[in-house]
Amino acid sequence: MKKLALILSLVLILVCAAATAEMGPTLNFKLAENQPDGNPITEGMKMFAKLANEYTEGTVNIEVYANGALIDEASSVDQLQMGTLDFSRVNTNSMSSTIDEFGVFGMPYLFSSTEQKYRALDGEAGEKAMALLEDYNMVGLYFWEAGARCFYTTNKAIHGVEDLKGMKIRVQQTEVAISMVRALGAEATPMDYGEVFQGLQTGVVDGAENDFVSYYTSGHYEVAKHYSLDQHMAPPAILLMSKTSWDKMTEAQQEGVRKAAYEAAVWQRQAMQDYQLESRAACEAAGCEIIEVDVPSFQKAVASVYDEYPQYKELVDAINAVE
Questions:
Q1: Residue 36 DSSP one-character state
Q2: Does 196 share its domain with 180?
Q3: Model confidence over 119-142: pLDDT tens digits?
Q4: CA-to-CA distance for 80 and 100, rounded, in angstroms?
């Protein structure tokens, strides 16, 4: 019996070794994430890492560095291109400074609904955008949910377009965001995200714009109590991998990583939508005013922004073609 058990153990070892050899060498990668633990995006990254390890039979190990512990979001794109960073989750707005066409995802009122957005991102429009990454030594794995952005203010509430006139609104450092806010009659004020709370508190800016999760987790709701539901932008995030690191994997490992990215993204999209609702409820419980606005009037006011970016027309048309 002992001899038989020994033989079976040796056979099992040889089978496992053969399977690992077929899958590929053991690889250790790092993933940069700027959101904190507990955020659905970060938890989605952890799920991705776990699934990638499972689907590559333990040969691909991905360590997730949350809360910007490894590198900031903007710098991570440069590191991916150089091949000194393996993975990063980046908002498409942040990608536009490297690949101009990615600015299309920040165009105002680009998507008609969340469902239409997913159909566009998972279809031809998303494939066209992903293909652009090839020239920048990057591989796009999947689009992730990052919420819909709305305006929030400290003193004067925004009930209509006319209320924005003359207001100083913090925006991301993107041309589209600046153009949009100007079209609405406000003064666009680019500012680092970490400075926004103080900017709102001290009156350097009258308001800012972001989704419910960021509005709540950043504490901005404590100093800017008026949140207007205009949902002017819904730029997705994207999980990127350096092509340098991608090429280290065998085809079987690449397939496993792609499968993991897909499954984690599907989970994250729903988790983020659920967290948006939870964050809204928490803000309402804290006394924030949630304001319904006439969205078509906002859309009309920013329609001219599309004329400023003719280079986005092909992708805009591909997105609009999706019902």
A1: P
A2: yes
A3: 999 999 999 999 999 999 999 999
A4: 17
Sheet containing 27-32: which strands, arranged edge to edge?
A: 60-65, 27-32, 87-91, 237-242, 138-144
| Bridging pattern class, strands 207-210 and 237-242 | unpaired
Specify if 16 maps to a domain: no
Angle (nearest 5°) at CA 261 between 232 and 177: 20
Reduce the DSSP state of residue 24 to 3 states and report it: coil
Report yes or no on 161 lying in a domain.
yes
Phi, psi of 122 (to 5 degrees): -85, 0
| CATH (domain of 95) | 3.40.190.170
Asked if 247 and 177 sit in the same domain, the reply is no
If 0-12 CB within 10 Å is exposed, 13-18 middle and 19+ buried, where does residue 138 land? buried
3-class state of residue 296 by DSSP: helix
Sign of the C-alpha dihedral computed for residues 258, 146, 238 and 70 taken in this order: negative
Q: What is the pLDDT of residues 263-298, one digit of tens each?
A: 999 999 999 999 999 999 999 999 999 999 999 999
- pTM for the whole thing? 0.86
